[in-house]
Design a protein that fits this description.
18 strands; protein dimerization activity; 26 helices; Anoctamin; transmembrane; two-stranded antiparallel sheet; coiled coil
């Protein structure tokens, strides 16, 4: 019986192999002529919704055929797991030219015959960084014009099957799919593939990759662009090479192309900032031993004789200033004269970065035929969800056409709900930040008492002060809270943006971007703002300390200053976010794909078709690029808003971005289904966000230098209060500390013990 089953399985597989004479990398119908432009998949789940889903599919596919598309269905018996049906879609020439005119797609009319006279004198030096010409420029440069069915003789139509690129074809088919009706339910007309995916009628809808990424296809008609992108762009060993932006744009569309253009330009500009930041850090490192403040703190005759007031009430003891010797030396790495120079430099750098990017963007806009894209966007990208939910119509005063619209009262109610929700979540972040501050205040006394009494901590007590221990643990706790809040808010932001029913795709993305960025801004930067501008500023003084909620005594800065704590906070949050982000981006989709393909690896090659391979990949999603921008803009904030406290931040960002480009390209090429091509003429609302952050960074860095660092007090002492002309900074530490009579301590603040009978303490 077992041998009989094996024989039947063999016959079944043999039948499938014989039936499918095409290569497993085939991107054509069974006739080998018609190209597969899109694939829909579904599963027959026999539940109470089965009949309804079957009816929807039948109606939807019938309407697709009425629109001119050609369909070919692969039975579930042909699939690798025997459960999934695949509907392959082909757009014939008549459909392509009809919708190319509707979408105002620009096509070639003549090859560009203007010679390129610009020569870079550094080309010979930059040759190792260059990619082959056929990779950088996969097709000639053309003069183009919007397509018109009535003027086909004007265009360079050499072959109808290749005249429209695969990315243009999948964009046209996706346009039809998002607007194709599938019936009437509850008295409302229903349409669009997105709704069918949401209600489970179809499980996936995607265009196909043109081949496997690790080898070329056997089909001579295949361009093998995915293979080229992987070999020349998506491998980490190519990190030093330029990006093939024209090929990225041709394969994935302008929207993804312009993201990688911006990311590459940002990374190039970071190189200069990283070099200057490293020089400033090395200056602090080499002058550490010459720092007079650290010398006086570490000197047993000066710092060893200065008795400091207790750091907490009753439990903490008096302590000598020289116990903070090591932390004061390390604070000089970031709090020195070079800090001021670097803050000024970064203010200039951020301006140059934004202005030079505008030039680069304008050049891409011209080269990629996106100059008049704004009008296209407004006219053509009306969201299907908007058309479906806005049943009322009114005449457009400009076009004189009837258009759907959302009544003003409905808009007002939706915006009120949206604003209230955003305000609630921002308040939740502030509440969580206050909770972290309470944690800092509550555990500070415990750390101070523990470190004074624990003999095992004596070897590191000079470096690990109670303030630093509290700051490190609070920063880690804050990072965990940030990640948890992010997880929930991402879903809330999408829900409330959907509820607002934005009119166009651009409007939808802009609204979602502003909500997400506002939340992320408060979430990531609030703790840094607290350490930079509030911590240690409202402490009071011995005998009259200030308390939070009349219970916890406000915490003081580290004796070496708050700047070293800001550096710690910035390093933990920034580095933690980058490490966690790369793990999420690279390992999670790889593990999911590996697990999903574990059965298919044992099958004969002919049984695992191109559409099944792509089906088993992860979905990039409409918001995939949004999260990439968000990640980089948050990083941009870290290296501009607080860079005066951490000159190595641009270097960390540079190393992360070199990895980020290759991780993003690798996952897009190997781990995700091919995204639907989309057009974009700029980075959108992110440009305005970057401009706002650039202005804010000038203010924050000026405030850090003025209030958080000891730069101003030192300069005032150097020029106005010095006591020794040969060494103007000697005596600064003694001058900067006030004197308090211990006998004036109230019982609430007075330490339980004073074994050495100190009379005064400093603060």
């Amino acid at each position: 019986q077992q041998s009989g089953r094996r024989y039947n399985l063999f016959l079944k597989r043999r039948l499938r192999i014989d039936k499918r004479h095409q290569s497993k990398d085939s991107i054509f119908f069974r006739d080998g002529v018609r190209r597969i432009d899109f694939v829909l998949s579904y599963v027959d789940d026999f539940n109470k919704e089965f009949e309804k889903k079957l009816e929807r599919r039948k109606e939807f596919e019938s309407n697709l055929q009425k629109a001119g598309l050609e369909l070919e269905t692969e039975d579930k018996k042909e699939s690798e797991d025997g459960k999934i049906f695949f509907v392959k879609i082909h757009a014939p020439w008549e459909v392509l030219i009809t919708y190319a005119e509707v979408l105002n797609i620009k096509v070639p009319i003549k090859e560009n015959d203007i010679p390129c006279t610009v020569e870079n004198p550094l080309d010979c030096m930059l040759f190792p960084l260059r990619l082959p010409e056929q990779v950088m420029h996969p097709e000639p440069d053309y003069f183009t014009a919007p397509f018109s069915k009535d003027k086909q003789e004007l265009y360079l139509i050499n072959d109808q099957s290749t005249f429209f690129s695969p990315s243009m074809r999948n964009r046209i088919v996706n346009y039809i799919l998002t607007r194709c009706p599938y019936g009437t339910e509850e008295g409302k007309k229903k349409f669009g593939i997105k709704r069918l995916l949401n209600n489970g009628t179809y499980t996936a809808a995607y265009p196909l990759h043109d081949c496997q990424y690790w080898k070329k296809a056997n089909d001579p008609n295949c361009d093998n662009e995915r293979y080229t992108l992987y070999m020349e762009w998506a491998r980490f060993l190519r990190f030093y090479k330029e990006q093939p932006l024209d090929l990225i744009r041709k394969y994935y569309g302008e929207k993804i192309g312009i993201y990688f253009a911006w990311l590459g330009f940002y990374t190039e500009m970071l190189f200069l900032a990283a070099v200057v930041g490293l020089i400033c850090f090395l200056y602090g490192l080499f002058t550490m031993d010459e720092n007079m403040s650290s010398k006086e703190i570490c000197d047993p005759a000066i710092g060893g004789e200065i008795i400091m007031c207790p750091l907490c009430d009753q439990e903490c003891e008096y302590w000598r200033l020289n116990t903070t010797c090591e932390s004061s030396q390390y604070s000089h790495l970031f709090d020195n004269v070079a800090t001021l120079f670097f803050a000024i430099f970064m203010g200039i750098w951020v301006t140059l970065f934004l202005e030079f990017w505008k030039r680069r963007q304008a050049r891409l806009k011209y080269e990629w035929d996106l100059v008049d894209f704004e009008e296209e966007q407004q006219q053509l990208q009306l969201r299907p969800e908007y058309e479906a939910k806005c049943t009322q119509k009114k005449r457009n005063p400009v076009t004189q056409e009837m258009e759907p619209y959302l009544p003003l009262t409905s808009q007002a109610v939706r915006f009120c709900i949206s604003g209230t929700t955003v305000l609630f979540w921002v308040s939740l972040i502030i509440a969580s930040m206050i909770a972290v501050i309470v944690y800092r205040l509550a555990v500070y006394a415990a750390f101070a008492s523990l470190m004074e009494n624990a003999q095992s901590l004596q070897p590191i007590s000079g470096l690990l002060t109670p303030q630093l221990a509290t700051s490190v643990t609070a920063s880690c706790l804050n990072f965990v809270i940030i990640m948890i809040l992010n997880f929930f808010y991402e879903r809330i932001a999408i829900w409330i943006t959907d509820m607002e029913i934005p009119r166009t795709h651009m409007e939808y993305e802009n609204r979602l971007t502003m909500k997400m960025f506002l939340f992320q801004f408060v979430n990531y930067y609030s703790s840094c703002f607290y350490v930079a501008f509030f911590k240690g500023k409202f402490v009071g003084y011995p005998g009259a300390y200030t308390y939070m909620f009349n219970r916890w005594r406000n915490e003081e800065c580290d004796p070496a200053g708050c700047l070293i704590e800001l550096t710690t906070q910035l390093t933990i949050v920034m580095a933690g976010k980058q490490i966690w982000g790369n793990i999420q981006e690279a390992f999670v989709p790889w593990i999911c794909n590996w697990w999903g393909r574990r059965k298919a690896r044992n099958n004969p090659e002919n049984l695992y078709s191109r559409w099944e391979q792509d089906h088993d990949l992860q979905t990039f999603g409409a918001l995939g690029l949004f999260y990439e921008y968000l990640e980089m803009v948050i990083q941009f904030g870290f290296i501009t808003l607080f860079v005066a406290s951490f000159p190595l931040a641009p270097l960390l960002a540079l190393m992360n971005n070199i990895l980020e480009i290759r991780v993003d390209s690798w996952k897009l090429t190997t781990q995700y289904r091919r995204p639907v091509a989309a057009k974009a003429h700029s980075i959108g609302v992110w440009q305005e966000i970057l401009n706002g952050m650039a202005i804010l960074s000038v203010v924050t860095n000026a405030f850090i230098v003025a209030f958080t660092s000891d730069m101003i007090p030192r300069l005032v002492y150097y020029y106005a209060y010095y006591e020794n002309e040969d060494s103007p900074m000697s005596g600064y530490i003694n001058n900067s500390l006030s004197v308090f009579q211990i006998s004036d301590f109230p019982d609430r603040n007075k330490p339980k013990e004073n074994p050495e009978n100190f009379v005064i303490c400093r603060w």
